[in-house]
Design a protein that fits this description.
Oligomer: single chain
Strand content: 5-15%
Largest sheet: 8 strands, mixed
CATH topology: Rossmann fold
Structural class: alpha/beta
Number of strands: 8
Helix content: 40-55%
Number of domains: 1
CATH class: Alpha Beta
CATH superfamily: NAD(P)-binding Rossmann-like Domain
Length: 234
């Protein structure tokens, strides 16, 4: 049985990835910082809930201790993320940008470091870091890509950091497979509003590529950046 932890799992892509992996037979732990929403989502999907705030060391340690007591961990999906919406009046200031980086980039390291001892005991350890084409230097310079036409100072920069974090972990911890994923433009709260009117695709569609990377075999790739069509240039 494969045990999987998903951070930021109570909504959007994280929740739909939990749904897909539970259907594939994984024992899924849905991590969320807000207990009421997290428990409700876990109950809806028939998965397990664990309180996990990726910006809080004690919360992360407690969550991983809970998984260790329950038997271990095989797959970690670093999905939790936040963004600054300057188009709606949110401030692009020091504290706001620090919060974005703390969740989106430092949070990946915080959770990964806490999880490594458990992952190293797995026969097929996998880490999937949910990134974005907005963090790809290639995509943000390629006119045919939406990322080239959407300024994203804080969020895009934080996701570029996620890409480098992925590459460096793949080099530093070769016994664990680390890959980043661009899930596509998705109609979620993070993406900017009402999924019913958002131009992005449904979260259940975007979650497919995340779930696919979570199900890599032992000979699967590491240190890559992937999207629906295959490898995405950094």
């Amino acid at each position: 049985m494969t045990t999987t932890l998903i951070t930021g799992g109570n909504a959007g892509i994280g929740k739909e990835t939990a749904r897909l992996l539970a259907a594939a037979g994984h024992t899924v732990y849905l991590g969320a910082r807000e207990e009421a929403r997290g428990r409700a989502a876990a109950e809806e999907l028939g998965v397990r809930f664990v309180r996990l705030d990726v910006t809080d060391d004690a919360s992360v340690a407690a969550a991983l201790a809970e998984l260790e007591a329950a038997g271990g961990l095989d797959v970690l999906i670093n999905n939790a993320g936040i963004a600054i919406r300057t188009d709606t009046g949110e401030a692009l200031d020091g504290p706001s940008v620090l919060a974005v980086f703390d969740t989106n980039a430092v949070g990946v390291i915080r959770v990964t470091e806490a999880a490594l001892s458990l992952l190293r005991r797995s026969e097929n350890p996998v880490v999937v870091n949910v990134s974005s084409a907005l963090g790809s230097f290639w995509a943000t310079h390629e006119p045919s890509r939406p990322a080239a036409h959407f300024p994203s100072i804080a969020y895009g920069s934080s996701k570029a950091a996620v890409s480098m974090i992925t590459v460096q972990y793949a080099k530093a911890v070769p016994e664990v497979k680390f890959n980043a994923v661009e899930p596509g433009i998705t109609a979620t709260r993070l993406g900017g509003g009402d999924p019913g009117s958002h131009p992005g695709r449904p979260a259940e569609v975007s979650a497919k590529i995340v779930a696919e990377l979570a199900c890599l075999k032992a000979d699967g790739p590491t240190g890559t950046f992937r999207e629906d069509g295959g490898v995405l240039a950094w």
